[in-house]
């Protein structure tokens, strides 16, 4: 799929999702950026803002199989990955796939489950496979996780392990709608019998695979390679940061920037593409110092300062 076709298709998907989700267009573009970058998306916000609806709507518009896992304190790893069940007739064990065996998996309120269950997703998110009782099972292609979490300050939540957070290409928040948006939400609800809106299917599995290959054709100049690397390295020297962006994070910045260029319909990455994805790609990877947390420093502020400090390259 060429860049122009991919960009037009992205617009169709975003328009379809917008029919169901009252949200800022840039937020929906961020979610789609994660999909195009062949990664996973983490949505954090208070309950009732539309995180689950967003995930379900994206899966429907893309025409992919979808499953939802409601994470709870008593959820076991086998409840996610599946387990071997003994067949008395054959006297053998048969693997019963868990809900993770879908193209799009909604890990709903992921930080309500204990770390052991959260860690069950790590292999799936990184390798596209799960291992149960020593046997490896491949997940469907494409496969990506859209996880939602409530703010960690809320009761009954666990902070995600840093290794798991690093697996998400982007993290974003839907936020509360504007007044006009909330009125429109009520108007749409009044005009239908079903509580959940219907979504138009735009793509199918083969088309999604094709559109995810489109960023591979996007050109990135050497000056932008240096710019991305300098942004990541600058986070590691900031006095407010205990652990900066890892090399994996630098690669994700590169992949998300190319995906952003596709959404914009360009065959090359610009510094603005990097800037537009930097917050959603980099901020959640930072671990702040104890002093910074006491001073109520926000990770987004650190990334903003880094963007101000690093010299932006001028492309010909």
UniProtKB/TrEMBL annotation:
- For the ATPase AAA-3 domain, which residue ranges apply? 40-169
Q: Which organism is it from?
A: Haloferax larsenii
- Single GO molecular function: ATP binding
Can you name this protein? MoxR-like ATPase
| Keywords assigned | ATP-binding, Nucleotide-binding
Domain ChlI/MoxR AAA lid, residue spans: 233-305
